[in-house]
Amino acid sequence: MRALLLTIAVVSAGIAAPAIAADQADTIIRGQYQSVLGDCSGCHTRPGGKPLAGGLPLQTPFGVLIPPNITPDAETGVGKWNATDFHNMMKTGIGHDGVRLYPAMPYPAYTKMNDQDISDLWAYLTTVEPVSNKVEANQLPFPLNIRLAMSGWNLLNFDATPFEQDSSKSTEWNRGAYIVQGAGHCGTCHTPKSFLGADKNSAFLKGASLQGWFAPDITGSMTSGIGRWTEDELIAYLKTGVNKHSIASGPMAEAIENSTSQMTDPDLKAVAVYLKSFASDTAAVQSVKPDEKRMAAGEAVYRDNCSACHGGSGGGAGPLFPALAGNSLVAQDSVETLVRLVLEGSQAVHTKGAPTTPAMPSLAWRLNDEQIADVLTYVRSAWGNNAAAVSSGDVTSVRGNLAQ
């Protein structure tokens, strides 16, 4: 960091800086951008805490993990690591002193990063403020807390193949693929998992449950994915957290605030080109329509509680309140996120491109589980939507998890 500050000061004074200082500064700046692509602060910085000094508990299907302190503090951070340790961790999931990581730290994606990007990231991490903050990262129950078991997990599930360019695709497409598959680790959240917690690569980016939310399908599906989104609309969402189709909430709001909103325009375009290259569905599956009684009950709840913002016909109100008609989030197989939004409400993320942060109020106090199930069933079947009904048990389950 001293080299970076020296370079800035010297350049500001109009004096030619030494080449080595400039090279170091460039490396650190590139590394800082890699931390943006990887959203390092999203996991390793808790709200109100020092940058990268350890994050909030991460709820996994197997128990709790806490992202550790990755500042260069010698006792509680990575101050005793070296560049080789860091490279091995990113490529193999084995860190300093042979400690095996759990794939909640997405080394199965980071392994696709090239050596230069990893070296740059390490150079940046060595310059952040060292913070003494001891974190007990592994809080999994026995026997899952035995890290040696990860050697078997890696043998079964970990593919260390580096990213390979597709010569039949454009440079822009390949850059987008490199970000999505590598540093951006989009599949870590958006790809369904096996019972062992490994990505189901046959369903890449088709949506997965994550900490009480459902990270939606971001393939080309015309119903549940982003098939109806244009490249420009996808770029706008990643840059600002909002477009006419959706407003980011939950973990995605954090990812936009700390990562995608800070990406360069060319990289956002590359990601959009890559994601929009996924094939669209050929035909939507016809779900069983709810009975008229449930639809009538749900419509009544909708008129009283939702129509003022989302419109009587589900058309929404531009970037302030998303349309529900034809909304891919509404059409997901899982209703976790929909139920959670009704119960908890939501606040849009603040970004430079969209500083207004419209909110949805919590309706948990106002609506019981059956009413929420009815209104969501109505929304998922009205205005051309064609998703399965929601049961009161679905709502009860989410409400109970939120109360824990």
Provide an overview of this structure.
There is one protein chain. A three-stranded antiparallel sheet has the order 1-2-3, with no helix packed on it. A two-stranded antiparallel sheet has the order 4-5. The protein is mainly α and 404 residues long. 41% of the residues lie in helices and 4% in strands. Strand 1 and strand 2 form a beta hairpin. It is built from 17 helices and seven strands. It has helices spanning 2-12, 19-37, 40-44, 83-92, 107-110, 115-125, 149-157, 171-181, 186-190, 231-240, 250-258, 265-275, 292-305, 307-310, 336-344, 369-381, 392-403, and strands at residues 58-60, 63-65, 138-139, 208-210, 213-215, 346-347, 359-360. The chain has three domains: 2-157; 171-275, Cytochrome Bc1 Complex, Chain D, domain 2 (Orthogonal Bundle), CATH 1.10.760; 292-403, Cytochrome c-like domain (Cytochrome Bc1 Complex, Chain D, domain 2), CATH 1.10.760.10.
